Amino acid sequence: MSISIQYLVLIVSGALLGWAISRLFIGLLFKPQTPVTVAGIHFSGILPSLKPVLLDQAEKLAGQFNLQEKISGSIDLNQLLPEIEGYVDSFLKLKLKEAFPLLSNFMGEKTLSKFKDAFMQEVTTRLPELLNNYAARLSATFDVKQMIKEKVEAIDFTRLEKTIREKAKKQLLLLQFAGIVLGVLTALLQIFLLNVL
Q1: What's the 3-state SS for 87-124?
Q2: Domains in the chain: how many in total?
Q3: Residue 43 in 3-state DSSP?
Q4: Helical pair 157-167 and 3-30, crossing angle rounded to 10 deg
Q5: What is the pLDDT of residues 19-38, one digit of tens each?
Q6: Is residue 181 scored above 90 in pLDDT?
């Protein structure tokens, strides 16, 4: 076999080896999904092996998340009051007359205005307390840590792999191309070293 054919074989085998290694790396991102023991060594895919780390980080984040604080802190009473006042006006002027027609005959604008003022005063006093109590009950009902834990544990790595392969197709091809280029460069370095030595 001539030297140029040997060099060509070395370059092609370097390119194939680089491509194969990059394909192997891409495969190892996702597989095996469950730990496998080979010759006493335990290993699993890179992303599946990160599941406990993701779970730990998610639980830490969930521990910092206070649902009651988020709910009661995100409600601005000043923004709600005009809407509530509109409902109160509608109730006093329309619904009250429908529900109690006789009573509405004895209630003038001043009386309705006093009812409205008293009701709005009660709303501004009691509504924050009601919202806070509701947020506390809601917070007790939903275990955010458990919900996040269930979501992380339910990660389907087969579907994740399919999604990543679809969405990052160009990047994965680029990685394979980089493997080929690296393999060719390694082969060229070997050829150079063989000629120098």
Answers
A1: HHHHHHHHHHHHHCHHHHHHCCHHHHHHHHHHHHHHHH
A2: 1
A3: strand
A4: 130
A5: 999 999 988 888 888 888 88
A6: yes
Model pLDDT for residues 182-191, shown as the tens digit of each residue: 999 999 998 8
Band of residue 155 on the pLDDT scale cut at 50, 70, 90: confident
DSSP string, 78-89: HHHHHHHHHHHH
> CB neighbours of 65 closer than 8 A, spacing ≥ 6?
144
Question: Cis link prior to 128 (omega < 30° from 0)?
Answer: no
The structure tokens listed for 99 are 């529900």
Q: Phi and psi of 37, rounded to 5°?
A: -110, 120
- Run of H or E residues at 32: none
Name, in order, each residue with C-beta under 8 angstroms of 50's C-beta and a sequence gap of 6 or more. none
Q: Which domain holds residue 33?
A: 3-196
